Amino acid sequence: MFELMVAKDSVIQCSYGSFYSVITILSDCEVNLASPPLATEKMHWPIQNILPFYMCSSWYNPMVLNAGLNLKPKPLIPFVDPPIPQYCIPMTFTAWEDASPTTTINGDKALTMCSKCKCLWQGEITPVFSSQFVAWSIAAEKKLNK
Predict the structure, then answer these.
(1) This prediction's pTM
(2) Which residues pair with 119 in a beta bridge?
C-alpha cells in the first residue's frame, strides 16, 4: 500500500486557524531517506514542531473568549456570536492520531497525510501538502535532464 508521508516543512492546517503552518523537525531526530526528514507521531509539541496558524477563532481559546467578553459597549455571547480571532498558540499535548501502521522511525509510527492532531482549543490539525512531493519533483526533473 502506498502511503504519502509527512516530512519536514510539510504544510499543515488547523480547523480554527486562519492560515496554514508547517511542521518542523529538530535536527537530532532526523531520518533521511533521500528526501526531507520524516515526521513521527511524537512530533506534536507546540512551537517546537507545530508553528502557530496566525489567528485562532475557537471560543475554547481563553484569549478569544477574553476578547469577546471584554468587548465594549456590549460583550459577545460565547458560542452564539462570532468570535474575535486572537493570535494562535497551538496547544497540542497529545500524540498524532492515525499514524502509519506499517512505517516506523526509531520505534515511532511515521505520520501520513491521513494523520491528525488535536489542539486543546478543540481544533483539529491535519496535513495539507507533503514536502515529499517537492523532493520527488526535483528528483524526477534531474532524471529528465540527464
Answers:
(1) 0.84
(2) none
Distance of CA 138 to the CA centre of its chain: 24
Q: DSSP 3-state assignment of 117?
A: strand
> Which are the contacts of 72, defined by CB distance < 8 A and separation ≥ 6?
none
Distances from the Cα of 98 to the Cα of 42, 104, 110, angstroms: 12, 13, 10
Q: Which three cell numbers mark 21?
A: 503552518
The residue written with cell numbers 531526530 in the block is 29
Q: Kindly list the averaged pLDDT for each block of 10 residues, start to end, along the chain of length 146.
A: 82 96 79 73 93 96 94 90 94 94 88 94 94 60 58
Three-state helix/strand/coil letters over 59-94: CCCHHHHHHHHCCCCCCCCCCCCCCCCEECCCCCCC
Q: What contacts 103, CB < 8 A, 6 or more positions away?
A: 3, 5, 109, 110
